[in-house]
Protein: Alanine:cation symporter family protein
Organism: Denitromonas iodatirespirans
Amino acid sequence: MSNVKLGAAFMAALTPLLAHAQEGSGIDEAINTAVAPVSNFITSIIFYSVKIGDVSFPLIVGWLITAAAICTIYFGFIQLRGVKHSIDLVRGCYADPNDAGEVSHFQALTTALSATVGLGNIAGVAVAVSIGGPGATFWMILAGLLGMASKFTECTLGVKFRRENPDGTISGGPMYYLSRGFEGLGKPGLGRVLAAIFAVCCIGGAIGGGNMFQANQAAKQIANVTGGEMSFFADKGWLIGLVLAVVVGMVIIGGLRSIAHVTEKIVPFMAAIYVGAGIVIMISN
């Protein structure tokens, strides 16, 4: 209930902005002007490329594929061998109400998928095919299969090194398994440094890829279906971003349990719409 009240108060605060939204037509441009230099600088570092023949190859792509291939071989192609086991986990075959944790196996799955369905496999696939042609599909399938081993490794480490807090909540993730994992190897200092670096980078990733990009895409689509360039929202992406922020805030302020309860209801519909739309597109073409 407190989250609903917070959302209502936030929307009430937005009322003056809505009344004078036309006066803020230059806000989008101002935000773009301010953020673009920082975004371009970070992009030049993260996606630093080397020339291989006539092609520019981002080093981070090679690093991710190499790590995924190593995990695949080390765990004996777990992404193929563990399919039945993963289905049994989601079905609750191994569920024990006495085990530590805040969410069910299915809620954990939907929470992870909620951040995957969208930027990664919708916008990313569309961009890859438009740039690389149909052949890009093969490489994305291969990278996806290898990436399953990386995800398995990441999730397993997260569970192994997670921490149960005095209030019963669970804290985990790369920040914890980096610091605690390297501590077990006798290098606690290195682990803490890597954990801190990851946490800082995660903030940037959440703000940029996790929020800004998807909010921008949502704003563009809302503008397109409400009149295109003549739409009230055509130059007011910031307004849609604020509304999305308060809606998301009402969910995440409640913590992991709140997020899991929402995602377990929304994600199945997201997946069904995604698969259904893909089938319709293939049939129509």
